[in-house]
Design a protein that fits this description.
Helices cover about 60% and strands about 5% of the residues.
Length: about 400
């Protein structure tokens, strides 16, 4: 007598997907946009356009091409592309908004105002969200000579600086800050951002004049004073650095970074007791200030800092076992202290045994696995940059991407 074999469901293997050449080309274009490689993006989009004959699919291509020309300062080419877009999709609010921005940046103020008014007529709700009335008022001020010529372009660039800086694109911050200074040399912000960009590029000597100019235009702004002191610290000029850091603390004695750097300066000068006293002064203001805690620990006069578990850490520790329990076919990878447990039908749990405060859990829905060639990493990063800049309180999506480097001990 033979037993009847129990039928089992076939195991589902995680599959990888291979993008079509057309999809890869589109991703390359979006990546170039994200990296602000405008000429490269235009070349890819023009090539891509040759194989697209559906007007609906042509719309985003023309839109992105016009944006590339705008950001390069090729305003005639941008306007010609907006015209091509209108021929494809007819009169549309997005096209008029793009035209208005292009006219404003190129100094054609009458046309910019008219284009914004047409946009208001076609999309009144969006016009309120985008504060088009304020943009028109600014253009009218520029027309009357009440503000510096080129102010519209100045503000257009200014809106981009913080995103570029947060994404680590310091060369772009430098370029745009210099453009803004050329338009209006009398405002402190572009000088300050120029200094930050140069400092982050390890060009402290060049950063000093930019910060000094920012301080001249806005005296005693504490972050500027601190950055000047920090530059001189980097340039190994302790007397200059201490003078500026003292000015910081005269303005704000709770500015902890200044206490920290002053301590570092005295430590380098061999005055260990003075350094320790300064760091202890900082901790009297904020006992859990980690940079100073570590400085004292390394000096042998303090305990190793231990971060208390946050609410998020507790949630991670509670949710991890729950998500793992839902996985029918969990797969586990380890890189040093870091462990990844995942099931494509459920999600993943990323844990760091060396740092309990560091972890990620995703259990929203099934997800896909994909392999990436090294040559595609730049495209991937540019694409993510574009997405980060596009997400806001009006247009947002939940997304989780986990990058695993099999030859390195890191997940990110």
């Amino acid at each position: 007598m033979t037993k009847r074999r129990k039928r089992t469901k076939p195991k589902r293997k995680a599959t990888t997907t291979r993008a079509s050449p057309q999809a890869r080309q589109w991703v390359a274009a979006l990546s170039a946009l994200g990296n602000e490689s405008w000429e490269e993006a235009v070349a890819i989009l023009q090539q891509f356009l040759q194989g697209v004959h559906d007007p609906v699919e042509q719309v985003p291509i023309y839109h992105n091409m016009a944006t590339c020309y705008l950001e390069q300062g090729l305003y005639k080419e941008a306007q010609a592309t907006w015209t091509q877009l209108e021929e494809v999709q007819g009169e549309h609010a997005d096209g008029w908004f793009g035209r208005a921005i292009t006219y404003g940046c190129s100094g054609q103020l009458d046309k910019a105002i008219a284009a914004f008014e047409q946009f208001q007529y076609l999309a009144p709700k969006r016009a309120r969200q985008l504060e088009v009335d304020r943009l028109i008022a600014n253009l009218q001020q520029e027309q009357r000579g009440e503000i510096v010529p080129g102010s519209f372009l100045y503000e257009h660039l200014n809106l981009q600086l913080e995103d570029n800086f947060d994404l680590g694109d310091y060369d772009m911050v430098e370029h745009k800050a210099r453009q803004m200074i050329a338009i209006d040399n009398g405002r402190p912000e572009p000088h300050f951002f120029l200094g930050l960009a140069l400092l982050r590029q390890k060009r402290a000597e060049e950063a000093v004049p930019a910060f000094l100019q920012a301080n001249k235009l806005e005296p005693d702004y504490v972050p500027t004073l601190h950055n000047i002191g920090y530059c001189y610290f980097q340039l190994n000029q302790p007397d200059e650095a201490l003078g500026w850091l003292d000015r910081v603390l005269q303005q704000d004695e709770t500015y902890l970074a200044a206490w920290h750097i002053k301590g570092q300066i005295y430590e380098k000068l061999g005055n260990r007791e003075k350094a320790i006293a300064l760091w202890q002064q900082a901790l009297s203001i904020k006992p859990d200030y980690e940079p100073v805690q570590y400085a004292l620990f390394e000096a042998g006069v303090g305990a190793e800092p231990k971060e208390p578990p946050s609410d998020l850490t507790r949630q991670l520790q509670q949710m991890g076992p729950i998500v793992k329990a839902r996985m029918r076919q969990p797969q586990v990878y380890r890189n040093g202290d870091v462990r990844l447990t995942f099931d494509p039908e459920v999600g993943f749990v990323l844990e760091d045994e060396g740092n309990i405060h560091n972890g990620t859990i995703y259990a929203g829905s099934p997800f896909r696995l994909a392999r990436m060639r090294p040559v595609d990493i730049r495209h991937f990063i540019g694409f993510l940059k574009l997405m980060v800049r596009q997400v806001n309180n009006v247009n947002c999506r939940d997304m989780a991407i986990l990058a695993y480097y099999p030859d390195e001990s890191s997940f990110s």
